[in-house]
């Protein structure tokens, strides 16, 4: 796209200002942003409640301005967020170019600077009231940051929803600021009363964002990588609470298994489900029979031949730890062998060659299968 | 170097294909040379955050095509040095934050152009500074590497660190054993490797892990048959390679997959002929450049990896590529002292 195709400089600036204002006005809302085809009016941003439509020319024009504004105003000394021109510019930059590392890092610097500012102001132990006000101000800034991220990561913007830069930024915000909020008094009380409080208030919104992004951009490597990292960092932070971890794992497995059933070809979804099973097999025992039933239904009733599903099968049924018990590893092998026995035929169903090659792979690379494996215990990383 | 895509498009219609597909060397050279002249295009600014990577891709492609002089050496070196920060790290372009990815590209460019003397002239102690920047990004507990001060970890950064440090003979600045241990932990049951322990197997990440182990001299840790099986399943009926199960073919995987297979001595587990035909179909024979698949817009990223893939499978007329570095073998041989 030539710069000549962008709007006139006057209009470029106007579009930039309009978008900035839009973000400011709706900083509490998750905006659903879409890029509209050229045919529509190039001068007006379409808005319907929280849905925003803007043409590529407008967004591109705003980006060019935003880039100039950012590099002119971003400096090592961070002004307060209320009047931070460079910070406003980063929103427009990232909307169009989600891999812009420097803009993303600037947002981190601003948050860090705010945290520092609040610490310095409220170090006096007598200033409990000010300290809570400080915490509230930081909590607001973090909430707004997560809202902004949701506007980009769950929008109908194809490239943006898979951005490794933004998914890591999200992880950094969560690890640096969000998790500690759950160790404070109000959340602590609710957590003691309800082991699923963490799932409802922290995890569910995150996994909803992940599955959303996974729908916008199939096989979303970085969204699902974030899904794994979230489990890891919260295991560390809340390591004294097995009932909360169990609730998280069970609810997560339910949500993701359901999602995989709807998005069968999504290898990333299946591989995350596998990760859950690999690391929390013990926690998932209440949910496993249902998962096994659904997966076996896919394999043998629906006869699904997707490589994504069979990749899951190899990873789950290959290793020894799924022997003895709920995953019914031994009987799975028996069923698979039965279903694929005999010579290759000409008009056999499509899934048969896939199943046959997976069995061959399992025979070669899977852990040995013994019919009597009652001594084997499912291995898992997080024993109670 | 811009990463502007187009104007060319990969692949003629099937019925217009010449009987013998040829690599359009001159057109690709002209295409790469033209990239920096396109400052009037939006995408020039949109890809500013990758500029130094783009320069490495373009330069490497030109070297493999046998046209190392096609980009003016002084201009390239001047640009590279303008991206350097005081701490020894490099940003994607002047004014951009330093990061491992751009630092590695800088080292690869400096190595290819044999420009470390110029670096030392302009920045005394420059090479050591770069080494320190990279070494400081290692997590000494796990052996993994962060991309920058903000802490994102990914095997891409670990690979980049070992690549750059080995070229500068500064590998002893980091704990290679720990790094190797971390890579080994990223191996999955299906044979592939991911961005971190337990992460989904992905051809790109496979390349970084296998490359890292190869550079560290520890490819003995790889289960070659298991990995080879996973990699060979990347080849699709159309001859192209994908990155993961159920994904579409993409020319860049001609590099990530093929080089990984080469490093574990199993390149013959895919059909080189069918891969070659696929890559050649992805080029724009008239305007130059290679696209991810026939019909799509070309760009310099897919151009270098398509050409590197062709070199690996022995396409005539190309310089030999080093599978562990994605640089000309002649360059890595010189830099590493005759491997």
Automatic annotation (TrEMBL), chain A:
Residue runs in coiled coils: none
Gene3D superfamilies reported in the protein's UniProt record: Protein prenylyltransferase (1.25.40.120)
Single GO term (MF): protein prenyltransferase activity
Listed Pfam families: PPTA
Keywords linked to the UniProt accession: Prenyltransferase, Repeat, Transferase
UniProt source species: Lineolata rhizophorae
Family: Belongs to the protein prenyltransferase subunit alpha family.
Source organism phylogeny: Eukaryota, Fungi, Dikarya, Ascomycota, Pezizomycotina
Bilayer-spanning residue ranges: none
Example of a GO cellular component annotation carried by this entry: cytoplasm
Record's protein name: Protein prenylyltransferase
Keyword presence, Transmembrane: no
Matches recorded under InterPro entries: Prenyl_trans_a
Automatic annotation (TrEMBL), chain B:
GO molecular function: metal ion binding; Rab geranylgeranyltransferase activity
Cellular component annotations (GO), alphabetically ordered: Rab-protein geranylgeranyltransferase complex
CDD domains reported in the protein's UniProt record: GGTase-II
CC cofactor: Zn(2+)
Cofactor note as given: Binds 1 zinc ion per subunit.
Sequence ranges assigned to domain Prenyltransferase alpha-alpha toroid in this UniProt record: 23-327
Gene3D superfamilies to which the protein is assigned, alphabetical: 1.50.10.20
Catalytic activity: geranylgeranyl diphosphate + L-cysteinyl-[protein] = S-geranylgeranyl-L-cysteinyl-[protein] + diphosphate
Described function: Catalyzes the transfer of a geranylgeranyl moiety from geranylgeranyl diphosphate to both cysteines of proteins with the C-terminal sequence -XXCC, -XCXC and -CCXX.
Protein name: Geranylgeranyl transferase type-2 subunit beta
UniProt source species: Lineolata rhizophorae
């Amino acid at each position: 796209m030539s710069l000549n195709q962008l709007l006139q400089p006057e209009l470029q600036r106007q579009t930039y200002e309009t978008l900035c204002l839009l973000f400011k006005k709706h900083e509490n809302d998750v905006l659903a942003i879409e890029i509209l085809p050229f045919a529509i009016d190039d001068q007006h941003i379409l808005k319907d409640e929280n849905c925003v439509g803007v043409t590529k020319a407008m967004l591109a024009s705003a980006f060019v301005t935003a880039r100039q504004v950012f590099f002119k105003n971003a400096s090592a000394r961070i002004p307060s967020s209320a009047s931070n021109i460079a910070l406003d510019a980063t929103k427009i930059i990232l909307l169009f170019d989600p891999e812009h590392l420097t803009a993303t890092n600037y947002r981190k610097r601003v948050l860090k600077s705010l945290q520092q500012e609040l610490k310095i102001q409220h170090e006096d132990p007598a200033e409990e009231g000010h300290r809570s006000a400080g915490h509230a101000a930081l909590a607001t800034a973090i909430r707004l940051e997560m809202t902004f991220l949701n506007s980009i990561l769950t929008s109908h913007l194809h490239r943006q929803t898979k951005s490794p830069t933004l998914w890591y930024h999200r992880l950094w915000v969560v690890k640096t600021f969000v998790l500690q909020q759950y160790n404070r008094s109000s959340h602590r009380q609710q957590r003691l009363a309800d082991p699923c409080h963490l799932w409802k208030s922290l995890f569910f919104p995150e996994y909803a964002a992940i599955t959303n992004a996974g729908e916008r951009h199939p096989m979303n490597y970085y969204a699902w990588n974030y899904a794994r990292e979230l489990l890891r960092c919260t295991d560390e932070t809340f390591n004294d609470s097995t009932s909360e971890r169990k609730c998280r794992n069970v609810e997560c497995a339910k949500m993701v298994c359901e999602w995989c059933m709807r998005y069968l070809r999504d290898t990333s979804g299946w591989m995350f489900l596998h990760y859950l099973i690999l690391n929390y097999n013990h926690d998932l025992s209440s949910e496993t029979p249902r998962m096994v039933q659904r997966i076996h239904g896919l394999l043998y009733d629906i006869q699904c031949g997707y490589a994504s599903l069979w990749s899951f099968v190899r990873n789950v049924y290959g290793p020894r730890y799924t022997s003895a018990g709920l995953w019914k590893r031994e009987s799975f092998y028996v069923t698979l062998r039965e279903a694929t026995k005999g010579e290759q035929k000409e008009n056999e169903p499509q899934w048969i060659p896939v199943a046959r090659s997976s069995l061959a792979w399992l025979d070669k690379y899977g852990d040995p299968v013994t019919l009597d494996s009652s001594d084997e215990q499912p291995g898992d990383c997080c024993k109670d | 170097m811009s990463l502007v895509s187009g104007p060319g498009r990969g692949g003629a219609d099937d019925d217009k294909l010449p009987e013998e597909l040829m690599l359009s060397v001159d057109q690709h050279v002209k295409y790469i040379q033209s990239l920096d002249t396109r400052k009037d295009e939006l995408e020039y600014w949109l890809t500013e955050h990758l500029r130094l990577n783009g320069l490495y891709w373009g330069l490497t492609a030109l070297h493999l095509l046998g046209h190392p002089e096609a980009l003016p050496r002084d201009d390239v070196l001047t640009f590279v040095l303008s991206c350097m920060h005081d701490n020894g790290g490099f940003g994607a372009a002047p004014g951009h934050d330093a990061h491992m990815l751009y630092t590695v590209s800088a080292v690869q460019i400096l190595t290819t152009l044999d420009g470390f003397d110029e670096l030392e002239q302009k920045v005394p102690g420059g090479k050591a500074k770069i080494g320190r920047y990279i070494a400081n990004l290692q997590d000494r507990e796990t052996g993994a590497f962060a991309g920058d001060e903000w802490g994102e970890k990914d095997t891409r950064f670990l690979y980049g660190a070992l690549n750059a440090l080995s070229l500068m003979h500064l590998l002893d600045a980091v704990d290679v054993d720990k790094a190797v241990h971390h890579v080994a932990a990223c191996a999955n049951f299906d044979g592939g490797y991911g961005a971190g322990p337990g992460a989904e197997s992905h051809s790109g990440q496979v390349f970084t892990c296998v490359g890292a182990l190869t550079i560290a001299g520890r490819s003995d840790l790889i289960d070659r048959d298991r990995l080879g099986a996973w990699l060979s399943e990347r080849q699709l009926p159309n001859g192209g390679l994908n990155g993961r199960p159920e994904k579409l073919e993409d020319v860049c995987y001609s590099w990530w997959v093929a080089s990984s297979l080469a490093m574990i001595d199993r390149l013959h587990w895919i059909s080189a002929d069918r891969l070659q035909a696929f890559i050649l179909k992805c080029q724009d024979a008239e305007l130059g450049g290679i696209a991810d698949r026939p019909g799509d817009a070309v760009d310099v990223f897919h151009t270098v990896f398509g050409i590197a893939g062709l070199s690996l499978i022995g396409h005539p007329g190309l310089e030999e590529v080093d599978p562990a570095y994605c640089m000309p073998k002649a360059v890595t041989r010189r830099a590493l002292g005759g491997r």
